[in-house]
Design goal:
The protein is about 40% helix and about 15% strand. By secondary structure, the protein is an alpha/beta fold. It has a single domain, classed as Aldolase class I (TIM Barrel, Alpha-Beta Barrel). Helix 5 runs parallel beside helix 6, helix 6 runs parallel beside helix 7 and helix 7 runs parallel beside helix 9.
């Protein structure tokens, strides 16, 4: 799976021995900065109902994102394409694994497009499960979804968060040819931890794909993200930020890893908000156009607002 999005509430119930910064003020089993107020509002229910009406999957639900109530309250969601079973079993991700998922649904493109219209979205984020069982990794289906969205919703902007298509650059090019405003592919973690965190994707292949996206000049911005709290060092995070910058990444997202279930990798450290700020400062110092870093930051969180900020600067 391509996104690191987790549910803090179940972790609160199960993880009673997770490490915390001893100098931080705690609330319950999590440090105070990892507690969110409960949101209320009619949009929470209307968004959920619209998604159910069109029989759509979202990474918000399948990967148990802690921000999903906030996003639903704003009538937005990140669409999860090509089913909700992934052909990879990454150590951080709660998406269901299957060697042979169900075939792509032929009517998914129009269902997504009509839901975008119903929700009134101006910026659409599309992500996908890894589909190593398909010859093109699912790229042609993603392209159909993009075309359908634009046909039904003229003027909408699109962000894609893809798999690595098993390194098939022809599949990457097929998506690039639709000229998405933002092309996102997550590096997820530092080089040393990649083999234990990711199933098939590699650190260097990720950099190659990001570089390819940038040099194509077919997307306005190139984006990548990583989660921290898995045991990485400051030097390793600096190295990763530098590697992303060297391979053309404009936008970096960085958030706290939260263990989605007992069978997944455990949290090694809760990262202080000040530490996120320090990484942000470092990224800007080496030329990253924008970094969005904080405990609850996830790849597609506030994606539309971020695009507005960046386009206003250019």
């Amino acid at each position: 799976m391509t996104d690191a999005l987790f549910d803090a509430k179940p972790v609160l119930k199960r993880q009673n021995r997770l490490p915390q910064n001893p100098d931080s003020e705690s609330k319950g089993r999590f440090p105070k900065w990892l507690h969110m107020p409960m949101l209320k509002g009619q949009n929470l229910f209307s968004t959920d109902n619209i998604l159910k009406e069109y029989r759509l999957n979202t990474v918000c639900e399948e990967a148990k994102c802690p921000n999903r109530l906030e996003c639903y309250s704003k009538k937005t969601a990140t669409f999860l394409l090509l089913g909700k079973e992934c052909t990879r079993a990454c150590g951080f991700c709660e998406i269901d694994f299957a060697k042979t998922p169900k075939p792509p649904e032929e009517d998914e493109p129009i269902r997504v497009a009509l839901s975008v219209k119903h929700l009134g979205l101006k910026h659409v984020v599309l992500t996908m499960v890894a589909r190593d069982d398909l010859p093109d990794g699912g790229s042609s289906h993603l392209v159909k979804v993009i075309h359908s969205i634009r046909k039904e919703n003229p003027g909408v902007t699109i962000e894609v968060l893809t798999s690595d298509f098993a390194g098939n650059l022809n599949s990457v090019d097929a998506v690039l040819d639709t000229h998405p405003e933002i092309f996102n592919y997550n590096i997820e973690t530092v080089r040393r931890l990649t083999p234990s965190v990711r199933h098939k994707a590699t650190y260097d292949r990720t950099l190659t794909i990001l570089n390819h996206i940038k040099t194509s000049k077919k997307a306005l911005f190139v984006k990548s993200g990583l989660m921290i709290g898995l045991g990485e060092t400051t030097e390793e995070i600096h190295e990763t930020i530098s590697d992303l910058r060297a391979n053309g990444v404009d936008i970096i997202t960085m958030g706290q890893y939260l263990q989605p279930s007992k069978k997944k990798l455990s949290v090694k450290e809760f990262i202080l908000p000040e530490t996120f700020k320090a990484y942000e400062t470092y990224a800007y110092s080496i030329g990253i156009k924008h970094i969005y870093a904080g405990p609850f930051v996830r790849s597609s969180h506030n994606a539309g607002d971020l695009l507005k900020i960046l386009t206003a600067k250019t």
